[in-house]
Amino acid sequence: MGDYNAYIATETIEGTDDGPLAGRTVAVKDNISTKDVQTTCGSAMLDGYVPPYDATVVERLKDAGATIPGKTNMDEFGMGTTTETSAYGAVENPVAEGHVPGGSSGGSAAVVAAGDADMALGSDTGGSIRCPAAFCGVVGIKPTYGLVSRYGLVAYANSLEQIGPIAPSVEDAAELLEVIAGPDERDGTTRDATDHGSDYDFAAAADGDVDGLSIGVPTELLDGADEAVVETFWDAIDDLQAQGASYHEVTLPSVEHAVEAYYVIAMSEASSNLARFDGVRYGKSGGEGNWNESFAQAREEGFGEEVKRRVLLGTYALSAGYHDKYYKKAQDARAWVKQDFDEALSDADVLASPTMPVPPMKRGESLDDPLTMYLADANTTPVNLANLPAISVPAGETDDGLPVGLQLVGPAFGEKTIIRAGSALA
Q: Is 29 a catalytic residue?
């Protein structure tokens, strides 16, 4: 395996000789529970933690015959856009030396881009599959909320996150999605796609047929984007047009407030979810002393700076006197975002934008400027607020050879539409 620090654990779980994924390797992000194999979420807090059970998606990988070659590095508890906040060190982008692979599923995208795994699982709370897919020049799918079980996913922000596939091609990603999708009685948020006018034959949709496809281009998601990214984006749209698609501009006024709303909601949910890491039941111990001292010491030593920042901000947003001022307003903005997407998709089959407004950043650039890192999620976070499916496919490269991704967003349970559109390019 490469020396780009993409794996935290390399204990192999051997697959079987039959099943749709027999003979193929699928790496698993380290916030997804694997029985008897360490799961750390990229955090010192969980160093050495070995789960006693498999996540539903891991059970389904095993049933499909897949071999799991290891657990992939990630931003600590999924909090980051660069995979530099991991307690196990930053991940190098294998296709853009000296640059970040994106985050928080940077390790998963990196092992696929480097050929050290055939496919991988990531999780996407505000772009954490699509961002690294774009930065590493591979394909990533963020499914409709509820299509894939979150049982066994260590929670960051429950109402936003989804597990999804990362792969070299759209067809490969669709095949992996077929395996992991579907209802799960252990996760009450899962839904059956057949109840929403779809089915699970995703790979068959990767036929590249975009003749007659209507593409809406939200102008707000191009504003402020890097010039080289915008140029590469339009080249990809021209390619789709040449294959029979058409495009028109649409507007999503609410996305102006989407990043702010996303981070208030995500940090608030993180504050609640991470309260369980107290150094008593599991995770890093705070040592001797009274409970308050032990609790504080465990979290001080176990959490990194970015996690501490988000927990503090989330706790503040939920505190008495500020709940209505911040959290409630963020939820109102979320409803507005959902309304705008539904309206735009009533007149288009898919919406298209650059996945990320910038090419991969150089390593170290964002660590001292978290606000810039948050703003880099401007094109991806609105999709999670609206609970819609989206795919990132390679759109090309800048003149400097840095990968650029094209994001395609579809209506709820419209995975087959975005897969068909994306397969025309990858």
A: yes
